[in-house]
Amino acid sequence: MININLLSVSNLPKLNKLRKLELSDNRISGGLEVLAERTPNLTHLNLSGNKIKDINTLEPLKKLPNLHSLDLFNCEVTMLINYRESVFTLLPQLTYLDGFDADDQEAPDSDPEADGDGLEDDYENGEEDDDDEEDDLDEEVIDDEEDEDDDLEGEEEEDGVDDEEEDEEEDGEDDEEDEADDDLPRGEKRKRNLEDEGEEDPEDEEDDEDD
After folding, report:
1. Using the 8-state DSSP alphabet, how is residue 127 labeled?
2. Is the pLDDT of residue 5 over 60?
3. Which tens digit of pLDDT belongs to each residue from 125-175?
4. Which tens digits make up the pLDDT trace of 47-63?
5. Mean pLDDT of 26-45
6. Fewest Cβ atoms closer than 10 Å to its Cβ: which of 33, 154, 166, 209?
7. Which region holds residue 201: left if phi is over 0, alpha if psi is between -120 and 50, else beta?
8. Which strands make up the sheet holding 20-22, listed edge to edge?
9. Which among 42, 51, 53 is positioned nearest to 19, based on CA atoms?
10. Which residues are within 8 A (CB) of 55 and not within 5 positions of it... i.e. 6 or more apart?
């Protein structure tokens, strides 16, 4: 809630899981006890650029046991003598004030927990797992399609073999009939051919006429 002309945080809802709260560049001058009541698990609080003038205004923050980073840049309170020592004494749970600890060691650029980086990593890992699962599914589908193609090819080959066997059997039958015809006497062979063609033997016709 940066630079939205807030005069107080009295209307802040209860946010038990909130870890980091940005309230910089507003017009807040007090009423910080609301933070202790409604955001009890705060670890980072930025009040830079507000109207905080006295150390005592910060006293309600003592009730935030997990608060370890507080920013008060551009607040009038920072102009007080022994400002840093006084705040660290008032709020012993603090590690960093305005980006530096009590020994003037600079704070890291970001806090993974407060910034939600851990959640983002989990989300990215979840997406990678989904991609791996999709790749596995795609490979299974491809394998199934290849198996189906192999089965179809096998069936076509079997059909081709069956057709060849049937043709060979028919050719064999025709050859056997031709060989049987060759073994018959010439007259019998001619007679049989005429019968196959549906004609009568001339000799049989002559016999019928004599009768």
Report:
1. H
2. yes
3. 555 555 666 666 666 656 666 666 666 665 555 555 555 555 556 565 555
4. 999 999 999 999 999 99
5. 96
6. 209
7. beta
8. 20-22, 44-46, 69-71, 96-97
9. 42
10. 77, 80, 83, 86, 87, 90
Beta-strand relationship, 96-97 and 69-71? parallel
Determine the 3-state secondary structure of 97 from DSSP: strand
**Nearest 5°: CA angle at 98, between 100 and 80?**
110
CB 43 within 8 A of CB 114: yes
CA 108 to chain centre: 32
The token pair at 10 is: 């009295």
Handedness of CA 34, 35, 39, 40 (dihedral sign): negative
3-state secondary structure of 76: helix
